[in-house]
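STRUCTURE:
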């Protein structure tokens, strides 16, 4: 049976979050209030921890329908204000502005590429500094060097190039 109080939910904007209510005695009444669904508190299917566990699928459906009515930002603000724990299922576009990633130093500034920050390597070697972030070489940038290493002459490379062999 799914545990409705530690489960993933999708919001109206198709964003997801993970609800994590570990202290049901404290958190269930707060959730009912945040949801503005006071009838849940007295619904026999959900009125006790045992009942919520036994009727987990029903509660998941009720919560899922409710969370689907508003965007993630709406629910995040309300759940945070009530002190209820959620985890945001991040999307790629969230990364540059993620405060936790910045606080942990997981993002590095990027110059010369089409991004303001890149995800940093998680490895740190004592006594070694990390290399600056640089753009990847353009497609074919090392073509002549590689073909030269393979024994081709500049004239042979030029002939291939003139015939469109490199796109």
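SEQUENCE:
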């Amino acid at each position: 049976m799914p545990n409705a109080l530690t489960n993933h939910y999708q919001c109206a904007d198709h964003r997801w979050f993970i609800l994590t209510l570990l202290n049901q005695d404290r958190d269930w009444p707060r959730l009912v209030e945040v949801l503005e669904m006071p009838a849940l508190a007295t619904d026999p299917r959900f009125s006790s921890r045992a009942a919520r566990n036994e009727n987990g699928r029903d509660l998941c459906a009720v919560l899922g329908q409710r969370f689907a009515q508003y965007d993630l930002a709406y629910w995040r603000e309300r759940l945070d204000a009530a002190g209820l724990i959620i985890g945001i299922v991040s999307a790629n576009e969230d990364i540059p502005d993620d405060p936790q990633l910045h606080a942990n130093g997981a993002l590095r500034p990027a110059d010369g590429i089409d991004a303001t920050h890149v995800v940093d390597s998680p490895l740190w070697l004592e006594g070694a500094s990390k290399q600056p972030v640089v753009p990847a070489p353009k497609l074919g940038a090392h073509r002549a060097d590689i073909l030269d290493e393979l024994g081709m002459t500049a004239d042979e490379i030029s002939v291939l190039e003139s015939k469109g062999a490199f796109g």
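REMARK: The mean pLDDT is 90.
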